[in-house]
Each structure stands twice: as C-alpha cells, then as structure tokens.
Amino acid sequence: MNNTLTLTREQTHPPIALTNKGLIDRAAIWFGLALIRWARRSDLLRSERLARRQEQAVRQLDADRFWQEVADQRATTEKYMLFRSLQ
Questions:
Q1: What is the C-alpha separation between 22 and 82, in angstroms, rounded?
Q2: What residues have CB less than 8 Å from 69, skipping those under 6 apart?
Q3: What is the pLDDT of residues 30-57, one digit of tens each?
Q4: Considering the entire predicted model, what is its pTM?
Q5: What is the count of structural domains for the chain?
Q6: Is 44 within a domain?
Q7: 2 domain-assigned
Q8: Is residue 3 in some structural domain?
C-alpha cells in the first residue's frame, strides 16, 4: 500500500489573490491599523484627562477652603478692631 501523497502544482502555491496585495488592500490594512491605534490612544488620553480634571478639582477645593479661612479670619479681625475702636 502506498502512503505517500503526491502534490500537484496547484497544491504547492497559494492562490494569487492571497499573495499579491493590491494598493487598495494595503491602504485598507494601513487605515484599519491606524484606526485601532487611534482608538487605543483615545482611551489613554481620556483616562489621563479624567485624572487631570480630578486633580484640578481637588486643588480648586483646597484653594477655596484656604480663601474661605482667610475671609473668616479677616472678618473676625475686623470685628475685634471695631470693638477696640469703640472702647
């Protein structure tokens, strides 16, 4: 019994459509990869922007608290100065 396979010329080479990429195919592949990179970059930028906004909000809250304390101290000081001037 003969177990060897005989290969014909058709079996050794893939079809031409699989080996020769045309200009449109290359452009489509490049465009698809560019879209994938852009989508990943957008996710990264979105998360960085969100982190920056959160940090900015915390800094703004700290600044607001500071200025509120300054205003409270100024009001207290002015009240004591008013009482002293009346005495």
A1: 88
A2: none
A3: 999 999 888 888 777 888 889 999 999 9
A4: 0.45
A5: 1
A6: yes
A7: no
A8: no
